[in-house]
Amino acid sequence: MIRRSFQARALRPPRGALTVALALALAAGSLAGEAGAQGRGQAGSKQAASQPGEAPPVALAARVLQSGDVTRLSFEVSAPVEPRAFVLADPARVIVDLPEMRFDLPPSMPPAPSAGQRGGRSGASGAASQRMTGLIASYRFGAVGPGRARVVIDLAGPARIVHAASEPGPEGRSRLVIDLAPTDAVSFAVAAVEGRGRQAMTQAQSQSQSPSSAQPPVSADGLEGRSARGERPVIVIDPGHGGVDVGAQAPGRPAEKDIVLEFARALARKLEETGRFSALLTREGDVFVSLPERVRVARAAGAQLFLSIHADSLNEATVSGATVYTVSDKASDAHAARLAEKENLADKVAGFETMEDSSEVSDILFDLTRRETRAYSHVFARTLVSVWKEAAGLNKNPHRSAGFRVLQAPDVPSALLELGYISHQKDAELMNTPAWRDRTAGAVARSIEAFFALREPGGG
User: Fold this and answer.
1) Domains in the chain, start-ordered, CATH in brackets?
2) pTM to 2 decimals?
């Protein structure tokens, strides 16, 4: 049976960053309460989240309206929800945090890039994102953790939140309304500092209420000691994106987050069927998991291999085939550099401010372990490429490297597998078929078996 995944936990910001953010936020009057000057939590928005056993509210429709200077994004919802809205900068966004809810919106809404952040990727989630006029460039939505949903609005210019609340809607339903109006750059910057401080507090509170996510220390036998104990090696499979972050998308084709989740489940089953490995998914459903959390899951589980699953997209519809990436300080080529840059923006796409931990160990033992880990990662990547070509097509340059944040664990061999290109018609069709998925997941499972056979005494 596939082991249950760790629950997605909010990021734990480093103490110094949290102190600075809160100090700036306090200076800007950021902790004045939920019904502050930005219009958060207006009357009527204080609705309780769904109780255990109750079905969560469902968003059934969405639309954008312009009235004078005010741009309104509204969702028709089956029951009232309590929104908590704030703005963030770099890039300019409005974040609307919500209790658990489901988005059941028409799939015909056209996708659009997310404020220029992600090249050939859509800003959609759950199904939809739409290029807008007025203050809203695009928006996306989805789950960001257990019992939590989010709407992220990419702004076309500095904006203030005039109103964010649930209001009575037609036929006994409710309407979630977010009204935005223009503001000046200085006022927006102050509000963004407030938003960052508020989010830092929320993230810290969520972290303190979750089970400990402390990373295990790097030990001299970190890569080999676990095998010596005779335990089944833990393979962490990481379906990329999820929830509010849809990943790559093309009109009329499945979204990346759905393709990679189905593949990850198939691979986990293949590994468990061997009886030699224990498979663990970083996410088991359509929920966003931050990049640092994905790494923490692998380290906390004592993983001996971490494989992140993705599907690429380009403006060039002729590029096809699978590619395997490993981590490096310098990218192997321009395409790998661009891809890593896009993938490393995942937290911002989901509306999170990633605050890096500056306490990285820098000593000889750490450096030796990281070098050994990277060497094992390259061995696995070469093995995967050699086995994959027996089952499916490869990109003309199938093994590349760049500075992917999700591959940064110093003591867990890691690789990122791009299954193919959603922008390529044949690749997109194949990736969505059970027969192709079964065949290629089997190839990956065989490559993992071959990789561990090489590491056994006398294995070469």
Assistant:
1) 32-182 (2.60.40.3500), 225-455 (3.40.630.40)
2) 0.79
